């Protein structure tokens, strides 16, 4: 692997900058960074007011990429996302007008408040980085990613995202409530006690960001690691506790996230601990538990942890510390 010290330092600079805006959520920030480096889409799920949108906007500003934000409501149409053709009388032709997806980072705010028809418009966008309008396909800018936020299902005005769309998110993370100390810091920064934290825009440029992703692609994965992931995934498909297991897309997401984790740790190879670190975030939103487990308040994460403990861990070294 090429010496990546320069790019690793750039990644650290991005993380440090975002931490100025989002207080006390270092692990969530790192995981979102990992997903972005792994060419994945991110779903941030939590109650209103804990900083989901602030987190997404902080990444867009710091990475120096073009960002379009859409506040999803029931009246948002698919054409708002993918674009539409408009008749031009001067040229006597229909001309394509790009939609919100024509950007590098599409911030889909409260994605589960819009109609299923509009949500379905994102399926091709997220899978292929393309949009199709009236039979013509248009490529989106490179890089392209979706950072979506949603309130928990059951909140007023929400509806559950279909499994096909959930599977296209590389990870699902939650913000959680801040600690008492962090909440004091947040209140001071928002009420004049401290100067508002201003992010430095364009900490890295698009060219360096794409080079960084290429380095992540080159991180070595041993065959024993591939087999380790395959065994974990197979158990989700055979378990009596799970109605729907992990898809091959999910397996790929685990590997790619682990590569990004290794990169941020300063490694050029993946360790079993890298896999374990990303399992819940890459798997929990992809499995469907039996109703009897849900009635018993058993979570997807606890089932995943149990499966992980039942699979032998390959012995290929110890994990370094960043």
TrEMBL record:
InterPro entries: ATPase_AAA-3 (IPR011703), CbbQ/NirQ/NorQ/GpvN (IPR050764), ChlI/MoxR_AAA_lid (IPR041628), P-loop_NTPase (IPR027417). SUPFAM superfamilies: P-loop containing nucleoside triphosphate hydrolases (SSF52540). Residues 41-171 form the ATPase AAA-3 domain. Transmembrane segments: none annotated. Residues 235-306 form the ChlI/MoxR AAA lid domain. Gene3D superfamilies: Magnesium chelatase subunit I, C-Terminal domain, P-loop containing nucleotide triphosphate hydrolases. It comes from the Bacteria. This is MoxR family ATPase. The lineage of its organism: Bacteria, Bacillati, Bacillota, Clostridia, Lachnospirales.
């Amino acid at each position: 692997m090429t010496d990546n010290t320069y790019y690793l330092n750039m990644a650290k600079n991005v993380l440090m900058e975002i931490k100025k805006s989002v207080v006390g959520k270092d692990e969530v920030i790192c995981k979102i960074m990992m997903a972005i480096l792994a060419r994945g889409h991110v779903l941030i799920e939590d109650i209103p007011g804990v900083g989901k949108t602030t987190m997404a906007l902080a990444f867009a500003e710091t990475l120096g990429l073009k960002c379009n934000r859409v506040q999803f409501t029931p009246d948002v149409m698919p054409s708002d996302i993918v674009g539409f053709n408009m008749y031009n009388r001067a040229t006597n032709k229909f001309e394509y007008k790009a939609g919100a997806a024509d950007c590098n980072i599409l911030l889909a705010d409260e994605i589960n408040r819009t109609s299923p028809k509009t949500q379905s418009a994102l399926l091709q966008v997220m899978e292929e980085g393309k949009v199709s309008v009236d039979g013509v396909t248009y490529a989106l800018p490179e890089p392209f990613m979706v950072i979506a936020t949603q309130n928990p299902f059951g909140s007023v005005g929400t509806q559950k995202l279909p499994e096909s769309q959930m599977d296209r998110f590389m990870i699902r993370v939650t913000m959680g409530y801040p600690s008492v100390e962090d909440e004091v810091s947040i209140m001071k920064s928002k009420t004049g006690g401290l100067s508002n934290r201003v992010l430095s825009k364009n900490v890295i440029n698009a060219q360096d960001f794409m080079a960084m992703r290429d380095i992540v692609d080159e991180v070595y994965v041993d065959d024993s690691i591939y087999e380790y992931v395959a065994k974990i995934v197979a158990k989700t498909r055979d378990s009596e506790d799970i109605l729907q297991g992990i898809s091959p897309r999910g397996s790929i997401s685990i590997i790619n996230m682990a590569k990004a984790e290794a990169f941020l740790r300063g490694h050029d190879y993946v360790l079993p601990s890298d896999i374990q670190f990303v399992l819940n975030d890459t798997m929990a939103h992809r499995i469907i538990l039996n109703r009897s487990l849900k009635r018993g308040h058993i979570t997807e994460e606890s089932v995943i942890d149990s499966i992980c403990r039942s699979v032998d861990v390959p012995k290929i070294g110890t994990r370094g510390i960043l």
